[in-house]
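Subject: complex prediction, re-run

Hi both,

The earlier run crashed halfway through, so I resubmitted it with identical inputs.
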Amino acid sequence: MNLKVFITRLSIPPIFRTLARQKYPTLMLISQISIALAVIANGLFIAVDRFQTISTLSGIDESNSFFLTSSGFTDNFNIQNTIHSDLAKIRALPDVVNAVKTNSFPYSDSGDEFALSTNQDSLSPIPAASYKLDEHGIEALGLELVAGENFSTNEVIWQSPHTSKFAPHVLLTTRTAQALFNTDDWQSTLGEPIYIDNNQLVIVKGIIKTLHAPWPGWKHLEHSFITPSVVTHNSSRYLIRVKPGTLDDMMSEIESTLALGNKQRLIRKMKSISDAKKEVYGADLAALTILLVVIVSLSFIVGLGITGATSLKILKQTKQIGIRRALGANKYDIFRYFLLENLIITSIGIFTGIVFAIALNVFLVEQHAFQKLPLSYLIIAALVMYLLNIIATIKPILKAVRVSPITATQGN
Amino acid sequence: MLKMTDVKKVFRTDLVETHALKDFNLQVGEGDFVAVTGPSGSGKTTFLNIAGLLETFDGGTYELDGQDVSNLNDKHRSQLRNEKIGFIFQGFNLIPDLNLFDNVDVPLRYRGFNSAERKKRIENSLEMVGLAQRMKHLPSQLSGGQQQRVAIARALAGEPRFLLADEPTGNLDTKMANSVMELLKTINDAGTTIIMVTHDADLAKQARRNIYVRDGQVSEL
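This time it finished cleanly. Structure:
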């Protein structure tokens, strides 16, 4: 069979004219497909975006770290001595990698934001979260130093919570350095002066690869810096990193060691970083799960709808199929006819669905500052709809193929 | 041209075995106009279905245009149906969502004719049945007689050697029935072989040859 004959036998123009006369069932199928495509494309985009946010690593050793708070409650509670003593005890434990007193950590949802700039009169400073850590901070958090040096012990200043003075050196994250100096050459940023809140001059001593700010979802999540200081507050938060596989044991051991070693304080709010992350992203995870369930359910329902509509159509057209067979259509002609008819409907549905998906995305962008829907999601959703359509229609179409030509003479 | 020898057709259910055709023998020559009559359930329609390659049979031989069609597969049977046989059904069997042009076009597309050839054949066949002016109408916009004329146009557009008609006037009033019968006679006069199953003895008399089917066997009248 040559191509021209093949195309003639496909009966494409009569299919279009038939569909135009079967307005309502055709429109119903097209609407189902286009709405499903719009929801699937945008839903997938939102789901992937959420998933990427949830699965992005903060830069610290999340699976082997935990934190606790030591809160003194007696009048003669010596904060500085307690911090020294606690950290020495913790660091001496064989399964501890390192520990640090910190003002904040990723996922804690509490911390301090400052404005960084390369000149004192900057009108567009870079917002960044500050972490106050001693020289053990890099190892305790599991950070990667990509340029420069760590702080030395004598650079670390001890200060009260009411002091706003910064030590003379800072470590910046790569993103912060990039935003400040507009370069990927981290070495060139070392020794450069920057201003904190346009008034305190500090010098860049090192660059760390990643350290997220404490506020998940913050627009400048990757902007942070470390200043070498220990804030003496009645409640001290320790972040402890242990060897892999020892987290649960070490959490209970360190809790009891600290609690028994000093009766003038309480050990509380102990939690692994993984659990803190789960709590922070709990609502997002639930929303993501619901969204995925909705996408899968919608696909299933649309698939069932297409199967039902196609089955009904073929049932109603049994006589017509018999007539076509009697007039010379073979089984392949019948298969191609219904497959093509469904592909035409699906294609129209996909085209209108793409328009609808873009309109929905424009609405989301304008009303909820959502991101622009990438073309790849439309293509994926379109392929899903084609695949869904073929899966949903193949069984009814094979039933149509089995209709005997004798049906044409039955029931006259 | 059409030769059936000892053709058998048995319909089986779990409980009953019905012999629809028993050693059915018939020979129809080129240009013949055969009317097939017989009581209900006698096997007339089964004969017509087998003759039109709509149905297979269980024994005997069937030659169509000198070709033994007993063991053809679906594809070849469909091709032979399309090229050599035209059907006229009692209920007209037009496709309701297609206009007259597209209805007549259905078998021509399966024949693989190009667009110009199909258009010429459709216009000529609709012209012959007097409905060329209404080719954009839907079947539902026509009377029963007109619909049967469209069905005849569809059957003839491919210029088949055989025209098989199953009660072609069964759903028409007398006036319409006579008009359709006249059309069939004209077609036969032009050389097309016609086999017509009918209950109507008056119509049967207008054929060149009458056969009677009873209990799955044929007898000449």
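The mean pLDDT of chain B is 92.

- K.
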